[in-house]
Amino acid sequence: MPSFDTRNPNYVYIDSSEALREVLPELKQAEVIAVDTEATGLDPYTCTLLLVQIGVPNKAFIFDARRVDLTLLKPVLEDSAKLKLLQNAKFDYNLIRVKTGISMNNMFDSMIAERLLTNGISREVSLLSIANKYLGVNLEKAVRQTFVNPKIDFSQAQLEYSALDVLVMFPIFKSQFALLQKENLTRIANLEFQLIPVVGEMEIHGSLVDRIKWESNIRELEQKRVQIAAKIQDFLRPLYLISQMDLFGAAVDVININSQPQVLDAFARLGVDIPSTGVAVLQRTDHEFAKMLLEYREYEKLISAFGFNFLEKINPKTGRIHPDYMQVGADSGRFACSNPNLQQIPKESAFRSCFTAPPGRKLITADYSQAELRILAEVSGDPVFVRAYKEDADVHTLTASQMFKVPEEKVSKELRFQAKSINFGLMYGRGGASLAAQIGVSADEGKRLLDTYFNTYKKVKKWLDKAAKEAVENGYATTLGGRKRWFVMPDKGDPNYDRLIGSIERQGKNTPIQGTSADMTKYALVYISQALKKEGLDAYPIQTVHDEIIVEAAEEAAPRVKEIMEEEMTRAHETLIKTVPAKIDAVISDLWEH
């Protein structure tokens, strides 16, 4: 473990532009620098930038952002030949970009590096944890909370804290980079690091939301919720000896729809015995009450997630929504999104249409058609699957035809639905019982359908079994992009051993597919951003949802932007997928469509 002394860090505090100019030559000569910032808050549009720290080995330069012209740092921070070391780089990128217009590049993010190195087994990626792990030091982070008053002078404790945050980056980088090389993670790390400014720009630009339309949607949902709730009460009323009226002459409720014991009692009165009122149980319960309850809960969920409080996320300075994207939010490598979570907005939803382009601009939405199934075809090499995609056939219809021995033109909607459920369910390790619950058949029928499927696609079965076995044997699974997901192996004496191993096997099947899809979308975001910049187009990505990318562009540039998105998403696909062709669905619109 490298030694590091946190006492008396070497730093220079700079509070004038003249002093800044004097140290520029030293900063320009450095091949590697560390960068950090201190601010009064997290929102780059509303907080005050207090300090910008730039470190070289064994020395930190602390620039008082209130008193110096930070744009003088542009040739240093925008030097693409200079490696910049940061912790949670996206935050500092956004803050510096919004406050100064400087766009950093060529960044190494210790937080992302640690996420890649411990993916699946740890989420300890704070600088406090990382410094303790690699250097054996305990950084004093309580000082961070003192950066609240932009009008007072900085204390020695604040300046030393700020200096240490950049000085520790050099030995941390050395240790992490060696491990990335050892684990063959440099390729995926480079992708994630190239993605940092792209994600930063997505957050900075944000999305425009039609507030009036959003409020109208909520009111409509609330009305539907009231109607279905009343319908449920009327449906159950004959089962109860309740006929009272409230003060306004309306019949009182016979049960609390949100109470599981009362709902279970209602089912019992209807002669339906169910173990719980969970969604999965209700979905496989063939009863009118279950259907109404599911509809009620769907309205509840939408109102809870996208109610009037969602509009509070609109930034007061920009009038737009600026979510927080976590690049490696899931262990599969997929993004996570929060504050607010735009990824949970249903695809077929009136809420999507509330995301609009400003006057004179367009939204171009593009996504990969059946990305994960195409990846399954690639990794399994199944000839039927591969041929279907090469011939642009309807894979679900073809699957139904193969499974049920009927001509493709005679495949019914029901048979296609069953085939589609199996196709997608396989990637999540779904078994016969789970499949049966989804498509509404018995467990025995679900198992029979799965057996028929695997007899049809023998190489798919072989690959899934191999992926599950290797996940347990190796202790990790990999994507085609080189991402690794480690698993915590249970002790053989653990009473839950079989269940835990089963979970690892399912993740071993899913990770190479879903994770490769995540890698592919990330390559696409990088390629699209590079191409738009190269052509000087007034366009930029503003959102991504799994295998979907949304770009906002000037109206006159939209047709070319659509072409670029199709070209670069195809190139990203071909970076990882060598046999199965890509299919991109793209549309130009005034709103978020698809």
UniProtKB/TrEMBL annotation:
<dbReference type="InterPro" id="IPR012337">
    <property type="entry name" value="RNaseH-like_sf"/>
</dbReference>
<protein>
    <recommendedName>
        <fullName>DNA polymerase I</fullName>
        <ecNumber>2.7.7.7</ecNumber>
    </recommendedName>
</protein>
<comment type="similarity">
    <text>Belongs to the DNA polymerase type-A family.</text>
</comment>
<dbReference type="GO" id="GO:0006261">
    <property type="term" value="P:DNA-templated DNA replication"/>
</dbReference>
<keyword id="KW-0239">DNA-directed DNA polymerase</keyword>
<dbReference type="InterPro" id="IPR002298">
    <property type="entry name" value="DNA_polymerase_A"/>
</dbReference>
<dbReference type="InterPro" id="IPR002562">
    <property type="entry name" value="3'-5'_exonuclease_dom"/>
</dbReference>
<dbReference type="GO" id="GO:0006302">
    <property type="term" value="P:double-strand break repair"/>
</dbReference>
<keyword id="KW-0238">DNA-binding</keyword>
<dbReference type="GO" id="GO:0003677">
    <property type="term" value="F:DNA binding"/>
</dbReference>
<keyword id="KW-0235">DNA replication</keyword>
<keyword id="KW-0808">Transferase</keyword>
<dbReference type="InterPro" id="IPR001098">
    <property type="entry name" value="DNA-dir_DNA_pol_A_palm_dom"/>
</dbReference>
<dbReference type="GO" id="GO:0003887">
    <property type="term" value="F:DNA-directed DNA polymerase activity"/>
</dbReference>
<feature type="domain" description="3'-5' exonuclease">
    <location>
        <begin position="11"/>
        <end position="181"/>
    </location>
</feature>
<dbReference type="GO" id="GO:0008408">
    <property type="term" value="F:3'-5' exonuclease activity"/>
</dbReference>
<dbReference type="InterPro" id="IPR043502">
    <property type="entry name" value="DNA/RNA_pol_sf"/>
</dbReference>
<dbReference type="Pfam" id="PF00476">
    <property type="entry name" value="DNA_pol_A"/>
</dbReference>
<keyword id="KW-0548">Nucleotidyltransferase</keyword>
<dbReference type="InterPro" id="IPR036397">
    <property type="entry name" value="RNaseH_sf"/>
</dbReference>
<feature type="domain" description="DNA-directed DNA polymerase family A palm">
    <location>
        <begin position="348"/>
        <end position="557"/>
    </location>
</feature>
<dbReference type="Pfam" id="PF01612">
    <property type="entry name" value="DNA_pol_A_exo1"/>
</dbReference>
<dbReference type="InterPro" id="IPR019760">
    <property type="entry name" value="DNA-dir_DNA_pol_A_CS"/>
</dbReference>
